[in-house]
Amino acid sequence: MDTLCRLLKHRSADIGLILVLFFVVLGIFGPWIAPQDPYDQLLTARLNPPDASHWLGTDGYGRDILSRIIHGAHISLMIGAFSVLLGLGFGFILGLVAGYKRGVVDEIIMRAMDIMIAFPGILLAIVVIAVLGPGLYNVVFAVGIWSIPIFARLIRSSVLEIREQEFTLASQAIGCSDLRIMLRHIMPNCVGPLLVLGTLRFATSILSAAGLSFLGLGAQPPTPDWGAMLSDGQKYLAVAWWVATFPGIAIMLIVLAFNLIGDGLRDVLDPRMRKGKT
Known about the structure:
Blueprint: H1 2-8, H2 11-33, H3 65-101, H4 103-118, H5 121-132, H6 136-162, H7 166-173, H8 178-186, H9 191-214, H10 226-233, H11 242-269, H12 271-277
Helix pairs in contact: 2-3, 2-11, 3-4, 3-6, 3-9, 3-11, 4-6, 5-6, 6-9, 7-8, 9-10, 9-11, 10-11, 11-12
């Protein structure tokens, strides 16, 4: 509760929370909020500029851009949430085991993570999609795989520090099992760094998924995905700037929101950062 209160007093984090709440509302209530069906095509109204009937204009097929952006919020949030959960779940287990067991187990796990992280993230995601094929769920899987080594390395470094603390050594001395020590004593003390990295990776996952959709590897037409909308709108930039501009602004705002929250969490949870601000 104290952490939440400090976070709410953090100005940039407040802006991020408001923006995230706004997009969450769009994602949940999109079907009721959207003024039109995002899939309806009206070729007589194609590339209409913003006006009273289409607040953000229409695209090359006469579809309402505002309605497609509202429905796209659900897709972007879903991609961010599930890809982060996938990366965090596997990365947490691997990092926890590697940091606690050390030795040969640590070497095997971390060398595997080093191999994964040696590839540029977007390239690794493209390789995964090339194997599985394009599609929304494959994008979630690809971006999640990309996140695993990042979470694993963070957790391992935290565990290496925590396992040498007195409360951990005392638990070992009284005969607690390794599983109990990891779950009851080490895992709760890794929550802070995980929250910060998870929030930042949420933003990265949304941006990466949008990039993959821009390349035609993500959600397939006519799904109202922001990256695909941006890709479709680039060919109209000279004659209809609104087709690409508004989806791009939506991507920018949601990525900015999660980055602001991540920075706020870092300031709130890191004692060194708090000390520097006092």
